[in-house]
Amino acid sequence: MVRSATFFVAANDYLRRILNARVYDVAVETPLELAPRLSARLGARLMLKREDLQPVFSFKLRGAYNKMASLSPAARARGVIAASAGNHAQGVALAARRLGCKAVIVMPTTTPEVKVNAVRALGAEIVLEGDSFTDAYGHALSLQRRQRLTLVHPFDDPDVIAGQGTVGMEILRQHHPRDHGPLRAVFVAVGGGGLIAGVGVYVKALRPDVKIVGVQTTDSDAMAHSLRAGRRVRLKEVGLFSDGTAVREVGRETFRLCRRTVDEMITVDTDAVCAAIKDVFEDTRSILEPAGALAVAGAKAYAARAGGSGRATRARPGRTRDDAPTYVAITCGANMNFDRLRFVAERAEVGEKREAVFAVTIPEARGSFRRLCELVGPRHVTEFNYRIADRAQAHVFVGVQLASAGDAPRLLRAFQRAGFPAIDLTEDELAKLHLRHMVGGRSALAAHERLLHFEFPERPGALMRFLSRMSPDWNISLFHYRNQGADYGRVLVGLQVPPGEQAALARFLATLGYPYTDETANPAYQLFL
Ligand SMILES: Cc1ncc(COP(=O)(O)O)c(C=O)c1O
Questions:
Q1: 436 lines ligand 1 (CB under 6 A)
Q2: pLDDT tens-digit readout, 263-283
Q3: Minimum-distance ligand 1 atom for the alpha carbon of 188
Q4: Same domain, 123 and 88
Q5: Which of 198, 364, 396, 492 shows its CA 20 to 30 Å from the CA of 305?
Q6: How, if at all, do strands 125-128 and 393-401 pair?
């Protein structure tokens, strides 16, 4: 990677800013801890930088406080403003309380009550405005101008970046090669890029040999796209599971710094993030939020690629070879909504490749269900859904715990050899999210059905908006929703749309404004519903 002379000037300026950053009035120096069970599994020493242990349970107060502490007395007296429903809001609110300054936080009206109350309890003034973050941000800008407040940006500000950079400073100070082995790489969750830019610029200035690896989810990877393209790429949609990193466009300054300091980007899927939450729980008994566990998921993927297995062998705490490489993963947040744990627990096994789910078609004949169970053998069955479908055959949705990586294809082949057509649905999001809860057989009445998968905002009125805009001539033939404790609900809808009205459907979907995918051709749908 080429690092130009002008960059070194900028890096020196950041080094100075980071060393002088004021964060410890409000933040604590968090521990850098070995994760013994994960390390034994990965064949690498994995150390966790425990930013989840900060007051307000994320690193975000470092940048917010540093920005606000640098304001002139007059600007501080006028107050600050931010748009956020998440960790940034809490960081700004706490920093403002410590500095005795007014903080206005603009949140979308869709923000769950629990988040609004958490920020209000820290003494901030809350303004609820608009349906989305973009609306809230627009409103924050106009209030900022009218009330002459200072905007505290969540990532794209040198003082915020420098505040987050103190995490990198602590890592290098706390890591002792003699005790902790040779530091090879630091893994960092990436949203707008403030944390990785600050950590990257500090670490590269002092230890250019240490790799800086950014981690994003596969459905919210603006930084990965931007670094590949060599310019900032704005994503049309972003997945919201890892809400702390759900950013459509990275910052101008963060991108400039990341181009020079980030060695590699890794993307991980939802199941891998859930598995990482479970791994960290097993090592620390702490529960991270999805964004907080991203770096661990990335480190696991990296270690697996580098030669470690990365997957579950029996954990042998403390048994890591002396010459094993050392990786640091920043566990950057723990603001987990308790309702989401059900979903995380359900997915963690699949993410760890310890569970597989299959659709198996068996003859509707005596003894065939028993034969199917024999094929599953001594494996632990996690789920069985079965309903008679027609006179000739039945479709069974079956989940099993796996003994090893090769176990899923082995079982699939066993089903097929026994004359039971089978599909591995382990990677099929629709099957795992909805169909497993709905196996009920096909209805002869559901003619001309289109299967659509929506993200509805999780708020009253979202369903009514959908129903009132839809043509009254279309029948809803299927509907499934299950609360996953996120800001957006995932809803599966079957709509009976006569062949002549497909264009009207397309117009309806375009004006509705809810993100959706057409799943009519999904193989699990074809089998089960
Ligand atoms: C827990 C957590 N992780 C990661 C991030 C992403 O940080 P950045 O936008 O600086 O990349 C955030 C941002 O709010 C966060 O709350």
A1: no
A2: 999 999 999 999 999 999 999
A3: 4
A4: yes
A5: 198
A6: unpaired
